[in-house]
Amino acid sequence: MLSDLPIPLDLPTMEAKLVETIPDGPGWRFEPKWDGFRCLAYRSGGEVLLKAKSGKPLNRFFPDMVAAVLALPADRFVVDGELTIDVGGRPSFEALQMRLHPAESRVRKLAAEQPAVFRLFDCLTDARGEPLVEAPLTDRRKALEALFERFGKAPAFALSPGTIDRDEACRWLEDRTAALDGVVAKRLDGPYVPGERAMLKIKKIRTADCVVGGFRYAEGTKEVGSLLLGLYDDDGRLHHVGFTATIKHAERPALTRTLLALKGEGFTGDAPGGPSRWSTDRTAEWVALRPELVVEVRYDQVTGGRFRHGTRLVRWRPDKAPAQCTMEQIDPAPARPMAG
User: The domain that contains 108 carries what CATH number?
Assistant: First the structure.
C-alpha cells in the first residue's frame, strides 16, 4: 500500500528561489529547468500516485504515465521530476494544459496521441525503499541513477542531466536551441527540504520588440496601467501577444497623454477580449491605438503564441519600425534535445 511507504503522501516538493545569475563557487550541481508539471511519483506494488506541486493528484490526467509506472520492474519507490509532453522536439506547456480536461475520453485520446515523459531529477527512497530525504544530493543522485538503471529502456522516463561545471550551465542559458526553461542550482551536500526554497532557479530570459496596440487604465485611475503588446504575422495582421505593466509611476501622466493622441485601429488579428485562459473581467476594458510605438520587453515563456506571464519593459524603440515586430521573434528555434 502507498501508505506503507516511508515518505508521507502529503510531502510538499522542495522549491527553488528565483535569482538573476548562476551561483559561483564549489559545491553546486546544475540541472535543466524543464517547462512541465512538477510531480512526485509514488509506487508501492500495484498502486501509483502522481502528485502535483499543489498537492493534487494527477492520475486521471496522465493515465499513460500511471500505466508506464506500473509496468516498471521496480515496484517500491518515490521519485521527483517533471512531467513533460514533447512537441517538435521540445516540451510543450500548451500540450500539458490540454490534459487538464474534464472528459476522461478526451484525456485518454490525448494520452494515446501525445504520451508524456517523466524527466527524473531526485530520488526520495533507496533501492530497499528506505527514505533518503535527509541524505545529501550526491547520495540521492546515485540512488536515482541506480533506480533508473533498473527501469530499463522505458521510453516514458528520462534521467535529467546535470553538471558541476558552471560554464556549461551558462552555455545552456545562452543556447537558444536548448530545449529547457532555465537552470536549477542545487547544493551537492544539501538534503531534500520539503516545502522550502532550498534550490536556486535562473530563468532563460529573452527579449522581443513589440508594437503597442493598445493600453489599459490602472484600476481606479485615468492613467495608463499596462501596455498591450502586438506582433505581426506573415499576412501583416497585428496579433495581441501579451502585456507589460512595469511603467514608472512618475512617467504615467505624460505617457497617458501620448497614448491618447494615438487612439485608432489597434489590433487587426487576435485582440484582447477573445475567449482564452488569459481572459478576466477587465479584459474588454482597453483603448485601441494606432500601431506607431515600439517597445522592447523581456519575457520568459511563450504558450500558444502569447507571453505566458507579464513582461518587463526594457526600453522604448523609436528606431524600430512597427512592421519589423514580427511573430518569428517568439517562435522557438529548432530544438537541440539535451542528453539525459
Answer: 3.30.470.30
Q: Are residues 178 and 217 in the same domain?
A: no
Alpha-carbon distance 61 to 36, whole Å?
Answer: 14
Question: Which one is catalytic: 33, 51, 186, 204?
Answer: 33
Q: Give residue 162's domain range.
A: 2-203
Query: Which of 154, 178, 203 is a domain's end point?
Result: 203
Cα–Cα separations (whole angstroms), residue 104 to 62, 83, 214, 261: 10, 19, 40, 52
Cβ(9)–Cβ(46) under 8 Å?
A: no
| Cα separation, 298 vs 114, whole angstroms | 31
Confidence (pTM)? 0.76
- Asked if the model's pLDDT at residue 137 lies above 50, the reply is yes
pLDDT the model gives residue 338: 61
Shared domain check, 222 and 194: no
CA distance 112 to 128: 33
Nearest CA among 11, 2, 10, 19 for reference residue 205 = 19
Considering the domain architecture, whether residues 199 and 211 belong to the same structural domain is answered as no
Angstrom distance (rounded) from CA 208 to CA 323: 13
Active site residue 33: yes
| Nearest residue to 38 (alpha-carbon basis) of 62, 54, 17 | 54
Express each pLDDT in 91-110 by its tens digit: 888 899 999 988 999 999 99
Spatial separation of the C-alpha atoms in residues 36 and 79, rounded to whole Å: 16
| H/E stretch holding 296 | strand 294-299
